[in-house]
Structure formats: C-alpha cells, structure tokens
Write a structure and sequence with these properties.
The protein is of the alpha/beta class. It has two domains: about 110 residues, Alpha-Beta Complex (Aspartate Aminotransferase, domain 1), CATH 3.90.1150; about 220 residues, Aspartate Aminotransferase, domain 2 (3-Layer(aba) Sandwich). The protein has a seven-stranded mixed sheet with strand order 2-8-7-6-5-3-4, with helices on both faces. The chain has a three-stranded antiparallel sheet with strand order 9-10-12. α8 packs across α13. Bound molecules: pyridoxal-5'-phosphate.
Length: about 350
C-alpha cells in the first residue's frame, strides 16, 4: 500500500507524488486555456513565477531552473567570479550529493568545512583564508555557500545569530554569500522567523520548487538583477533551458497558494502530536534545538516498528520504511527520521494520536 493525497505521511517534505497525481493536478488547473506560454523557459507564466519568487525572497530578480543542483552550481559559479575556491559545509548537498559538479564543469574547488556538523565557525573560515593568502599561489575565496536546513544533519537550521555573524565577517572581507534553502518553508515554519529575515543575509538564494509544491521538477534562484538577468544564457549553455515550462510553472504557482500557512499549521500540529505522544511511555520522539521538520523517533526493535507501521497503514497513516535508500545519511540505531509535512492536515491530531496509541 502507498500513501495518496488523502493519507498522512511522515516521509518527505510534501504530499506524495506520482505521474497520475501530477496528471490529475494539471487537469484540475482551472485556467488551462489561459496559461501564458513561455519559449525555452523565458516569458509567459514563467515570468509570473519568477516575479512571485523575487517578492517572496525579497530579491531583485529570479530565474526558473530545472533543478536545485543547477541553482547551487550557477550561484557559486557567478558569485565566485574569477576566484577558483568556494567554502561549503562538508555536510551540504552541493559537496556530498552533486558529483563534484563545480570542480568538474566550472573549475571551482569546493573547500568543505565543519566535518559532520551542520555548520562551520568563523575561525575555520579565517584559517582557510589565511592559508590561501600565504600559499605559493595565493588565492582569494570566491564565495561561501550555506545550506539550511541541513538535509544530512537531520534538517538542523542555522540560527539568525550565526547568520548575522557570518554576514558581518563576509562583508568585512568582501566575500559573497549563497543560501541553499531547498527546504525554506520547513525552516520558517519551525523557527517562525519570516523568509525575508533569512534571505537578507545572502547575495543569492535557492529554493526548491518540486520538493513540496507537487511539481515534477523546478528550482528558483534569486539575487541582484545584475547577476540573474543574463543567467538565461548560462542556463542554455548548460542545456537547462526547458523548451516548454509553462504547465510546470502553472502547477507550482497553484500549489504555492496558501502553502506557507499550511506548512505553519502542519508544523504546529506535528509538535502538539509529538508532545502528546511523548507523555505516554510508548513513544520517545526527540525534539531538538534548531530542528526544522525532521524528528527522530525511537523504536525498540525492527519487529515492533514494523507492527506499529502496519497498524498505522491500516489507518491511512504512513511511517517511513526502514529499508528506504538513505544515500549514506547516518541514522542513530533504533531511531527513525520522521518528517512533518502538509499531509498531517489530512486528519485531526486526535485521530492520528489515537491511531498511534491504539497500536
Ligand atoms: C539541500 C538540497 N540542496 C539541493 C538539492 C538539489 O535539488 P535537485 O534535486 O532539484 O537538484 C537537494 C535535493 O535533494 C537538497 O536536499
């Protein structure tokens, strides 16, 4: 059995997706006849999408890209200019999960900092800057890229105090900053800090458009007009100018409507549920500092977990499959990562609680 749009699922950041679900959603768009067409991802409704996100992210301009991997690549490439080194978190997607894309395609070396941690310190940056300034071939650091929430670190988020400190340091040293906020709304729903308060520290910001807006693909990259305006040429050069993007843009815009409020409510419901479950002696769900929508739930044995999981599936509630591929993300033994997403709004907290307790 698989979750559908009416299920509650504790996996993933959005509602379940499939070819059928996407086709149905496209069919249900109420303005199919009036969707303004783009040409190679330029103009039409794609413009509307880009303008919408420029406002949301409070930046001058945005560009619609096929993937977040490309968005991070373009941001670091542009911000670095002629400098061939950029600093990234060792645990970031761009360092761990993007196949050395910047090193291979753009000749930019990523220097990983903060081993096995969600962040690195200003002292670590100072150390690298110093070493590069006294090396045989002195080099400047082109930019610093930060991911928040950090996917490989249980969705931990960077604090505003940290961002302020980093921003001050970067300004003083004339270093540009990029934010990989693939899961932007998972961060703001947890911290309750407005989106602008995060994006103001960064020259460029990327947000995923497929992970939780029900679309098959898409990413937005926002920044200064000077930086983004000509990027459609880079997109074409990289083979990323999808010839017809309008349907996808329309789908994203329709699912964006009200999403921030839904995610906020979902997060609040999830926390209430976890706190209630923790009051019983049956459940232990860790609620850590600086988490976003990822929580670790303890289980006694795989057999017991599987019993609970099957019982919940009978109630149309889905816990993660312990055997799902995790691409090297290390889980503590006898803990499973559970995620809050908007599917939690499909049932009342009471109903979900009763299903857990009745196991
Ligand atoms: C934090 C983070 N950044 C970037 C990406 C890349 O996004 P895409 O899969 O759209 O290339 C992902 C995707 O998993 C991610 O989790």
């Amino acid at each position: 059995m698989k979750p559908d749009l009416s299920s509650v699922s504790f996996s993933g950041d959005g509602l379940p997706n499939s070819p059928k679900i996407i086709a149905d959603k496209i069919n249900n768009l109420d303005d199919l006849n009036t969707i303004k067409q783009d040409v190679y991802s330029v103009g039409g409704i794609v413009d509307d999408l880009e303008n919408k996100f420029s406002k949301i992210l409070n930046k001058e301009k945005s560009i619609f890209l096929p993937t977040g991997t490309m968005a991070n690549h373009f941001a670091i490439r542009e911000l670095s200019g002629s400098n061939s080194k950029a600093l990234v978190q060792e645990q970031s997607h761009i360092y761990q999960d993007s196949g050395d894309t910047l090193q291979t395609i753009s000749g930019i070396n990523l220097i990983p900092l903060g081993l096995n941690s969600s962040f690195f310190t200003i002292d670590e940056i100072k150390d690298i800057i110093h070493k590069n300034s006294i090396s045989r071939v002195p080099k400047n650091i082109g930019c610093i890229s930060l991911e928040s929430p950090v996917r490989r670190q249980k969705g931990q988020i960077l604090t505003i105090e940290y961002l302020q400190e980093l921003y001050d340091f970067a300004k003083e040293n004339n270093i540009k900053l990029h934010l990989d906020a693939a899961r932007l709304y998972m961060m703001t729903s947890a911290s309750k800090i407005p989106i602008h308060e995060y994006t103001k520290y960064f020259d460029t910001v990327y947000c995923s458009l497929w992970k939780y807006f029900g679309a098959p693909w898409g990413a937005i990259l926002a920044g200064d007009s000077k930086l983004i305006s000509n990027m459609f040429n880079t997109r074409r050069m990289f083979g990323g100018s999808i010839p017809n993007s309008s349907l996808n843009a329309a789908l994203i815009l329709s699912n964006l409507e009200g999403f921030e409020d839904k995610m906020n409510d979902s997060y609040d419901n999830g926390i209430k549920l976890f706190n209630e479950l923790n009051k019983t002696d049956k459940f232990n769900i860790l609620i850590r500092d600086n988490h976003s929508n990822v929580f670790e739930m303890e289980y006694k044995s795989t057999d017991e977990y599987s019993k609970l999981r099957n019982h919940l599936i009978n109630n149309d509630i889905y816990l993660p499959d312990l055997n799902a591929e995790n691409y090297g993300i290390i889980n503590n033994s006898n803990y499973v990562d559970i995620r809050i997403n908007i599917s939690i709004l499909n049932k009342s907290i009471k109903e979900i609680y009763n299903a857990f307790i009745g196991s």
